[in-house]
Amino acid sequence: MRINKEGYKIIGITGAVCLLIWWLIYHLLVSHSSISLMWVSALLLVLFWFFIVAFFREPRRVRIHDADLVFSPCDGRVVVTEVVPEKEYLEEEMLQISIFMSVTNVHMNWVPVGGVVEYFKYHPGRFLVAWHPKSSTENERTTTVVKLPTGRRVLFRQIAGLIARRIVSYMKVGEPVEQNSVCGFIKFGSRVDVLVPKGSELLVEIGDPVVGSQTPIARLRK
Q1: Which residues of the chain have pLDDT under 50?
Q2: Residue of 41, 72, 135, 190 marked catalytic
Q3: I need a labelling partner for 149 at 20 to 30 A (CA). Which of 22, 56, 119, 123 fits?
Q4: What are the domain boundaries of the chain?
């Protein structure tokens, strides 16, 4: 299992803290309680550390290219499919597809379409639960707009949730990006919104599970 570079520091710190906790349990509590406490605590700490390691796993996936399709930028489950007014940059009505990522999902993010990064902005904000309707506009988030060779634009937002406290994005204005290349990482539970032109064909429904870089979620109108 490969580990994403965004997890190296957290995995190391968590491992050190787990060792310290076990050392304290061993030296302060074992003499006053059963020896089984030491082994139970060791097992729980190891399981917790393995959960943190697994959270930062980096799956190997086939990179798919199809200029007519918009792919899911993350693993998770579709929670919103609706037409909304986009007021930050595009200033037009767009079809929004929102995907909720639980703490058990892979938290890497991929670029849903290929083209050139036309707009990028980081927004500090609140940490409402990721499925809250206001999380798209009030939570800490990044906004990226990719302009396709056809001139069409697709916007996507990485949104922090109640637990997620750090969003990582590799997007830079003016740089070309390949469809389904890695665009960032969100640490712990979170959400990604994808906004496509209103006339696009929706390929998923609320409740559908999706796989980042593999599941098409919309077809762009020619």
Answers
A1: 130
A2: 190
A3: 123
A4: 5-55, 69-219
136 given a catalytic annotation: no
**How many other C-beta atoms are found inside a 10 Å radius of the C-beta of residue 221?**
12
**Per-residue pLDDT tens over the stretch 155-176:** 999 988 665 557 889 999 999 9
Instruction: Give residue 29's pLDDT.
Output: 63
Q: Which one is the CATH code of 69-219: 3.40.718.10, 2.115.10.20, 2.70.70.10, 3.40.50.300?
A: 2.70.70.10
